[in-house]
Specification:
Elements: E1 2-5, E2 21-24, E3 27-31, E4 37-43, E5 54-64, H1 65-68, E6 72-78, E7 81-89, E8 92-96, E9 101-104, E10 109-114, E11 118-124, E12 130-139, E13 150-154, E14 159-161, E15 164-170, E16 172-173, E17 176-177, E18 186-193, E19 197-202, E20 208-215, E21 218-220, E22 223-225, E23 230-233, E24 239-244, E25 250-257, E26 265-267, E27 270-272, H2 275-287
Antiparallel strand pairs: 1-2, 2-23, 3-4, 4-5, 5-12, 6-11, 7-10, 7-12, 8-9, 8-11, 10-13, 14-15, 15-18, 16-17, 18-25, 19-24, 20-23, 20-25, 21-22, 21-24, 26-27
Length: 319
């Protein structure tokens, strides 16, 4: 579901906010099999599949782990994508089939590449009392969608610009550049706005952008976004104005990238191009060795669901 706010009035004059903002609202979905936790999903939707190469945005918490049980996602596979984990509170233990064993903590990036195939687990640690964060996916371009497994960790230094504190975990913003490589031009950053603060950011006009509001409310180029809403803008904008008009800090995650022109098939944990490619990945997870083995997890892996009776069709975002 979503709404659009045009940047021009009836007389054709540009509004003070600037860019046209499409607002997407989330839906609640279970994550992680039989011990599922509930997350809010804003991407993909029927009206928009991608923001740049970003193809998946899940937002969860703040959850009282004593009440919800936290996160316990058993071994599961991925192809054709990168997973991006970013926390606001809590701690998650990551294990994968290339032998990586790492922790996701607030303000630190964990990026896993599952091109041809990888499997992993995500479990909140015993010391976590409140779990709160985002899980994002990046679609790999066709030339690289069968690339090898990889894992990167990065803790960006905070950058202050006016009344905003910015942590750039992918790409470049506010004079800071992440060292983590990407397969397409990308931007990913956490932004915290002080109360009653307006900040204007220089942005790449080749990029489309999405702003996911986590805490408080933020006016994005003149359009008010409430908590858990995702504001989207298209290419052609050299700056973005963010305003927090409240008495408390506001927090958001900004993503962006050049329009991803390829049409993709997204099903379960896979990103491909054809029904046959997805079907083969499912078969390999159920019966093959393509995805490797995750060591150190106490429990069974997640079985693949049945494919739909109709063919999976490639989708893209209408331009």
């Amino acid at each position: 579901m979503g709404r659009s706010t045009p940047s021009t009035s009836a007389g054709g004059q540009e509004r003070a906010g600037g860019a046209r903002v499409e607002v997407l609202t989330p839906r609640d979905v279970p994550l992680g099999g039989p011990r599922a936790m509930t997350v809010r999903r804003t991407l993909p939707q029927k009206t928009r599949t991608l923001i740049g190469a970003w193809c998946f945005i899940d937002h969860y918490g703040p959850d009282d782990v004593a009440q919800t049980g936290g996160m316990d996602v058993a071994p599961h596979p991925h192809i054709g994508l990168q997973t991006v984990s970013w926390l606001f509170s809590g701690e998650i233990e990551h294990r994968d089939s290339m032998g990586s064993h790492a922790f996701v903590r607030p303000g630190e990036l964990n990026l896993m590449t599952g091109g041809h195939g990888i499997s992993h687990t995500e479990v909140s640690t015993p010391g976590t009392t409140v779990l709160h964060g985002v899980q994002l996916w990046v679609a790999l371009p066709g030339d690289h969608r069968d690339t090898g497994r990889d894992f990167r960790h990065h803790a960006p230094e905070p950058v202050r610009q006016g009344g905003a504190v910015i942590r750039v975990f992918l790409g470049t913003l506010a004079g800071d550049t992440s060292p983590v490589p990407a397969f397409t031009p990308l931007l990913g950053a956490e932004i915290v706005l002080d109360p009653h603060t307006t900040t204007t950011l220089d942005t790449d006009p080749a990029f489309e952008h999405g702003l996911l509001v986590d805490q408080g409310s933020i006016r994005m180029d003149g359009t008010l976004l409430s908590g858990a809403e995702l504001g989207c803008t298209g290419p052609g904008n050299e700056r973005m104005t963010l305003a927090n008009e409240t008495d408390a800090p506001a927090r958001a995650v900004l993503v962006g990238g050049t329009p991803f022109e390829e049409r993709i098939v997204m099903w379960w944990n896979f990103v491909g191009r054809t029904h046959e490619e997805i079907s083969q990945a499912r078969e390999d997870w159920e019966h093959g060795t393509r995805f490797g083995v995750v060591e150190g997890y106490d429990g069974d892996r997640i079985p693949a669901p049945q494919l739909p009776t109709t063919r999976l069709k490639p989708r893209g975002t209408p331009r």
